[in-house]
Amino acid sequence: MLFSKQWKKMDDRMNKSDKEAMEKEEKATVATNDEPEINYRGWKAMPFIIGNETFEKLGAIGTLANLLIYLSTVFNLKSITAATMINVFNGTTNFGTLVGAFLCDTYFGRYKTLGFATAASFLGLLAIQLTAAIPELHPHRCAAKESGECEGPTTGQLAFLLMGLGLMIVGAGGVRPCNLAFGVDQFNPKTEAGKRGIDSFFNWYFFTFTFAQMVSLTLIVYIQSNVSWAIGLGIPATLMFIACVVYFVGSKIYVKVKATGSPMTSVAQVIVVAIKKRKLKPVEQPWLSLFKYFPPKSINSKLPYTDQFRFLDKAAIVTPQDEIKGDGSPADPWRLCSLQQVEEVKCLFRVLPIWASQIMYCVTLVQLHTYAVFQAVQSDRRLGNSNFKIPAASYVVFMMLSLTIFIPVYDRAIVPFLRKIRAKEGGITILQRIGIGMFVSIFTMLVSGMVEQHRRSIALTKPTLGVVPRKGAISSMSASILIPQFILGGLTEAFASIGLIEFYYKQFPENMKSIGGSLFYCGLAGSNYFSSLLIFIIHRTTNRTATGNWLKEDLNKGRLDYYYYIIAGLGILNLGYFLLCASWYKYKGNSDNTPELELHVNGEKQQLDKP
């Protein structure tokens, strides 16, 4: 199998000592008196998991990458309507991951959720493909003209399209929060080899994910734009079917963690009990005085006491009215909670401020998938002196290419080097990695603004290369000048996006990993909705100014560069907010008062004391 060969090559590149440790330790089993042994297969299960993920992404991205153009050309929607529709769809899709994660952790488990979600995605892609293949399911093609109204979709046509998108929302709601967590489940977290495997898995997972994006944004998008929409959308549907097959073929070797009930019940108990006992005085030496109980079958790691969010500590204060069972558990969990429960809720509360900073950061990524594509539409996309035109949506591939090239370099060269000089497991901390990515995202928007200013200037002052129907003149600026902003976008994702996902998975309690995974996509959802709101505000505000609407259908008559600069300014404010949150943050399992940020003075590390 193709993916087996890929992972074998990767495995051969491992250090001999690490490989021997991996083979020895991954066979370790974990057992309790009442439960069967768990046989962690580690990288042996990856061809099926990564294979499923690759084909699933090839299918989903192969459709969604060019969906903006599809809505504009085949369904005859205006650019601002299509961009808003894409933002709302992406936002709803990403928020849907929270529902999927809750159902996964509470009722179905990751294995069943992934199987159902992949099948739903296939049906959704099939429905969208039919809108292109069957003439009655899309409007008549709009004549190639510069301006004027075109026939839009009927209610029935739009309803069928939305049904397909709805099925894709259901599928993504199950796949996105569970796929990565399901892969992590295959490694033994209690062995050194398992821990190294998990760390490396995050990077290689995104490597193959990005590979799928590159294929979708080149080959599949080209077929859709230049050959046939029916064939171009049929390929992703076929690939999604293959993803279903690959996933179920590996069923016998998967570690299938069962659902343990709603983890949010424990969160609610801590909050309710803390409110009930809010008038109690704080206890001295809470790490000794608070009620301690750890369920014997809990999959969560035991957490030490931390002195943040101390108002929650009152939920674990024992009063004369509280009753305790013979096994040490509270008789009424809605009247008394354990220190372990309190610390798990603190983990959740500590992550939320960091998550809030993700929303503004991801606005940059949203622009690279929407308005940057429109920039390419009104630029010279000819390849050399030939008449071959690169599809506008395919320029996003340079973002993926940047990410694909950088990840192996980072994982195999930069991390080992930093690990030696800094004595940290990942070379740098997760929050430092995220901060670097946010810093690069600001430059991404600044470069995007300067490029757009240059593209517009050439379009207005030099001969153009024709007219895009219903948009405007094509600037003679080569679209290749857009490549630097996409490369910077890829580096941004390599640092911040991967760092954020790793951060959520590692900082959430083990029974909330799927919810932790969904948090990244909820951040993307917030970014999509915030981007739509920003577009609406800019559109309404600038429409009455002397410069006119910044986000006109014809970019040559607007000021998209100003819009990019505003996002860069908001990014600077967001970076400052993130640094404040990072300096205050304590990692899960770290009970001391050491803050995240460090100063380096005269080559020596100086830690900032908590005020």
Question: Mind explaining what this structure looks like?
Answer:
With 611 residues, the protein is mainly α. It has three domains: 204 residues, MFS general substrate transporter like domains (Growth Hormone, Chain: A, Up-down Bundle), CATH 1.20.1250; 80 residues, no CATH class; 235 residues, Growth Hormone, Chain: A (Up-down Bundle). The chain is 63% helix and 2% strand. It is built from 17 helices and four strands. It has a two-stranded antiparallel ribbon with strand order 1-2. It has a two-stranded antiparallel sheet with strand order 3-4. A hairpin with a 7-residue loop joins strand 1 and strand 2. Helix 5 crosses helix 6, helix 6 crosses helix 16 and helix 7 runs antiparallel to helix 13. The longest helix is centred in the N-terminal third of the chain and has 55 residues. The N and C termini lie far apart (57 Å). Belongs to the major facilitator superfamily. Proton-dependent oligopeptide transporter (POT/PTR) (TC 2.A.17) family. Keywords: Membrane, Transmembrane, Transmembrane helix. Its main location: membrane. It comes from Gossypium mustelinum (Cotton). It is a multi-pass membrane protein.
Quick tags:
Growth Hormone, Chain: A; membrane; 3 domains; 17 helices; single chain; 611 residues; BEACH domain-containing protein; two-stranded antiparallel ribbon; transmembrane; MFS_trans_sf; disordered C terminus; two-stranded antiparallel sheet; mainly alpha; 2% strand; 63% helix
Summarize the entry for a quick read.
With 611 residues, this protein is mostly helical. It has 17 helices and 4 strands. It has a two-stranded antiparallel sheet with strand order 1-2. A two-stranded antiparallel ribbon has the order 3-4.
